[in-house]
Amino acid sequence: MPKANRSLLVAWSCGVLFPAFIAATAAARELSPADMAWIDKCIADRAIEKHDPVKARKYCACMQDIVEDNEPFTPSELEGSYPPAHVMCMEEAGLLRP
């Protein structure tokens, strides 16, 4: 394999595979009962907006990952206090796409 192609392969691996590995590791962590309650509250809030339940769960899990365990944010408070996280999680869950 030419040296230039090898460099591109390494760069691609670092740019694509490593973030995917980190995301999979984060998704595999155990959720506490408080985490699950937070996600359930978030899903209930999204049900009012008639979001797809599967997409709502993805969105809420993403938002929950952002909240530190010792932060007492409700889902709505987090959305209001940090809009970039809200937009990122909406995109990740597929709620912003038609």
Protein described:
The mean pLDDT is 75. It contains five helices and no strands. The chain has 98 residues and is mostly helical. Helix 3 packs antiparallel against helix 5. The protein folds into two domains: 30 residues; 68 residues.
Indicate the mean pLDDT. Answer: 75
As a percent range, the share of strand residues is under 5%
Helix content: over 70%
The major sheet is characterized as:
none
Give me the strand/helix succession.
Answer: HHHHH
Summed up, the domain count is 2
Quickly give the structural class.
mainly alpha
Spans of at least 5 consecutive residues with low confidence: none
**What is the distance, rounded to the nearest whole angstrom, between the alpha carbons of the first and last residues?**
42 Å
How many helices in DSSP terms? 5
Shape descriptor reads: globular
Please count the beta strands (DSSP E, at least 2 residues each). 0
Rg of Cα set: 17 Å
Task: Name the features.
mainly alpha, 98 residues, 74% helix, 2 domains
Topology overview:
Blueprint: H1 3-27, H2 33-48, H3 53-66, H4 75-81, H5 83-93
Helix pairs in contact: 2-3, 3-5, 4-5
